[in-house]
């Protein structure tokens, strides 16, 4: 069984699960989760005063989310179906270097975002979206330019997720690919429509827990099968696979080396693309705005470093299993290798899972892909709805928009974007575009705004003309280089040639870095010298008065205590000490540099340059460390939110439901959010504590 037929041919793998299972997971479980979240939203409104008829609660969770839940939400934000499928895909294609570079292309920019997040908290604490920052600083023309770039980013990100998820759901259940594409957003639309950003945070937590538990299960199950048995045996299997079909561009043709030309090209491509996906994704800014000032940096830093293990460990183990067992009779494609189309569609992970766990493995993959795509879609949907409500409706149609107006426009945005993203993904599918194509070319369209956006927050001299022109010129440069190199290297411009890695690398790098040159040159001609204090003159929060000082009942602290105790969680947290925020900024800068140097330079590049080939002991250590890190990530994602305020809020909800606590206020969205009528002696004499009760910190 050492010989396999070539990749040529049409996939003839029968789905291990029935269509009914696919519809149950995608539709029934999706709707059940949606209704559970609707119930949770109602309970939190009744017991904790979290009124989602108020815009600040709907969009920013009253800016009181703590470190634990922020870290969990950050991990979840990158738990794309693309990450789960793509890390195994590049591991199968490039070997051991693929999953590592996939992970290293994610964690540094997640941690870097902590610097942008805390800078926004310090300079413009009332913002809801990154586009509000652009509009205030540069005006409407720049606002429209960045709005288009952000929407393009969200559209392609959603298409990337839906294409991969739908292909896998179809492969394991036989469900029609278009049906899965349109049904996946249904549950997301329902709970995001009702619960807003807080529902997104809570479903992020729930979905992340399930995904990581199943990922940890796969990390153990792979070595408990008779065909593998141990990490040492997996090493032998992968080594034998390299002898059967050596990897072009890898040192000695082996899968067991970091010296892989294709993998390093993918690393450059993936790192640039992900910088674009983070910086130009308004959902990341929304989650940063939703967090407490003291939670932004530790939340994003812990989340970014913890996330590294997921694509690294899962991709390494499952791609190695696929490579090692591809010539076994129970591998789904035996007696042939996986076709290029199957690999590019992200089927390495499900095929490996089926091989080691049968129908149970197929069901587990179906569940984690569903959880991943719905969780990240929720963040994308709320991001786009925030753009449509705050940056389009409020700015260009109704300046005096009330809570009710903005919530209504947000609801419209949720439904519209969910339907649009499904339709756009369907169009891409019918023109022959799959997960692999979008994974490679994504950076061409997401990267032009990276440095202009970073300069907007961090560089006071960046000019209005540079902000408007540099991303447009950068996009034009990236597209020209991408299409030009596809034509130069492959003789034509087609779906196949534009999806090759070389044109995508050249196009992405040009799209990412050319705006630096454009920005610097244009700015030097006429620098702006912006005064950051102008940001705070803009009144963006609708519930400023409610949030700064919720109703103080007769049994609450005196006004003297109130004046000295408004510390965290308010929409305009004036008490968030400027020096403390600067200190967090320095910490964020340190961890940004340290994470990039550690994950991208110091660890992998010496191994690449030395042409090191993994021995058996080193491979065992590599896999063991990855699995331990993965299990640590699972523990952080599940228990950190519970220990950091979650248990407290669960107890608060319990007391509220059993009548032991009374939340004053009303369900009328135009009235104030009440605070728990707790005696001053118990509340510690602090409105900030009362606000935490009202806003919710889990």
Count of the domains: 1
Tell me the distance between the termini: 54 Å
Query: How helix-rich are the residues, as a percent range?
Result: over 70%
Strand content: under 5%
CATH architecture: Up-down Bundle
Class derived from helix and strand content? mainly alpha
Total beta-strand segments: 0
The CATH topology name reads Sodium/glucose cotransporter
Could you name the key traits of this structure?
Na/solute_symporter; 698 residues; mainly alpha; disordered C terminus; spermidine transmembrane transporter activity; transport; DUR; Sodium/glucose cotransporter; urea transmembrane transporter activity
Descriptive overview:
Belongs to the sodium:solute symporter (SSF) (TC 2.A.21) family. The structure is a single chain. The chain contains 30 helices and no strands. The protein has helices at 19-48, 55-60, 67-77, 81-94, 97-104, 107-123, 130-138, 140-173, 177-221, 231-244, 261-279, 282-290, 293-307, 309-325, 340-344, 348-397, 403-430, 435-446, 450-458, 464-490, 495-498, 501-525, 533-537, 544-548, 559-563, 578-602, 604-609, 616-657, 680-683, 687-695. It is globular, with a radius of gyration of 25 Å. By secondary structure, the protein is mostly helical. It has a single domain (19-542, 577-661), classed as Sodium/glucose cotransporter (Up-down Bundle).
């Amino acid at each position: 069984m050492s010989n396999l037929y070539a990749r040529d041919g049409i996939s003839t793998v029968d789905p291990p699960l029935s269509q009914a299972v696919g519809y149950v997971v995608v539709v029934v479980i999706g709707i059940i989760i949606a209704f559970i979240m609707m119930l949770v939203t109602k309970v939190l409104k009744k017991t904790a005063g979290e009124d989602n008829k108020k815009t600040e609660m709907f969009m920013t969770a009253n800016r009181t989310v703590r470190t634990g839940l922020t870290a969990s939400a950050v991990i979840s934000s990158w738990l794309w179906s693309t990450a789960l499928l793509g890390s195994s895909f590049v591991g199968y294609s490039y070997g051991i270097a693929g999953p590592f570079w996939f992970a290293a292309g994610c964690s540094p920019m997640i941690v870097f975002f902590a610097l942008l997040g805390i800078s926004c908290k310090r300079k413009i604490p009332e913002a809801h979206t990154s586009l509000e920052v652009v509009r205030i600083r540069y005006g409407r023309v720049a606002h429209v330019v960045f709005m288009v770039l952000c929407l393009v980013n969200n559209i392609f990100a959603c298409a990337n997720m839906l294409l991969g998820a739908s292909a896998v759901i179809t492969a394991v259940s036989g469900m029609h690919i278009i049906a899965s594409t349109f049904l996946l957003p249904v549950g997301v639309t329902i709970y995001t429509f009702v619960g807003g950003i807080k529902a997104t945070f809570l479903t992020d937590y729930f979905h992340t827990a399930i995904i990581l538990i199943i990922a940890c299960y796969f990390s153990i199950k792979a070595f408990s099968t008779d065909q593998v048995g141990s990490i040492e045996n997996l090493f032998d299997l992968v080594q034998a696979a390299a002898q059967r079909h050596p990897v072009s561009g890898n040192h000695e043709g082996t899968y067991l080396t970091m010296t892989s030309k294709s993998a390093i090209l993918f690393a450059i491509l993936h790192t640039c693309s992900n910088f674009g996906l983070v910086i130009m994704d308004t959902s990341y800014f929304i989650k940063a705005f939703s967090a407490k000032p003291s939670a932004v940096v530790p939340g994003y830093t812990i989340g970014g470093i913890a996330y590294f293990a997921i694509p690294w460990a899962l991709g390494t183990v499952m791609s190695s299993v696929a490579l090692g067992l591809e010539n076994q009779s129970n591998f789904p494609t035996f007696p042939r290798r996986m076709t290029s189309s199957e690999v590019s569609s992200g089927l390495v992970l499900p095929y490996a899972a089926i091989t080691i766990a049968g129908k149970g493995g197929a069901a587990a993959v179906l569940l984690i892909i569903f959880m991943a795509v719905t969780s990240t879609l929720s963040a994308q949907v709320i991001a786009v709805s925030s753009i449509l409500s705050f940056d389009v409706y409020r700015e260009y149609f109704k300046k005096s928009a009330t809570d009710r107006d903005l919530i209504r426009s947000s609801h419209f945005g949720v439904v519209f974007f969910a339907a649009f993203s499904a339709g756009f993904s369907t169009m891409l599918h019918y023109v022959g575009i799959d997960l692999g194509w979008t994974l490679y070319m994504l950076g061409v369209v997401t990267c032009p705004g990276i440095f202009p956006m970073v300069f907007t927050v961090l560089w006071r001299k960046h000019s209005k003309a540079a902000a408007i022109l540099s991303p447009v010129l950068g996009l034009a440069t990236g597209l020209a280089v991408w299409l030009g190199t596809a034509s130069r290297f492959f003789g034509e411009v087609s779906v196949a040639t534009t999806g090759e890695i070389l044109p995508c690398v050249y196009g992405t790098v040009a799209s990412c870095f050319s705006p630096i040159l454009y920005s610097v040159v244009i700015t030097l001609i006429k620098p702006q010298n912006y005064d950051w204090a102008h940001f705070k003159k803009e009144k963006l929060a609708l519930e400023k008065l409610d949030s700064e000082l919720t109703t103080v009942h007769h049994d609450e602290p005196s006004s003297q205590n109130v004046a000295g105790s408004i510390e965290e969680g308010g929409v305009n947290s004036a008490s968030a000490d400027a020096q403390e925020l600067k200190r967090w900024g320095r910490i964020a800068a340190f961890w940004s540099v340290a994470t990039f140097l550690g994950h991208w330079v110091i660890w992998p590049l010496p191994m690449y340059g030395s042409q090191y080939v993994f021995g058996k002991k080193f491979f065992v250590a590599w896999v063991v460390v990855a699995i331990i890190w993965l299990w640590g990530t699972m523990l952080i994602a599940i228990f950190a939110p519970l220990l950091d305020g979650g248990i407290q809020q669960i107890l608060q909800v319990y007391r509220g439901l059993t009548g032991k606590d009374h939340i004053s206020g009303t369900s009328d969205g135009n009235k104030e959010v009440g605070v728990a009528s707790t005696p001053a002696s118990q509340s510690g004499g602090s409105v900030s504590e009362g606000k935490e009760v009202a806003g919710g910190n889990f």
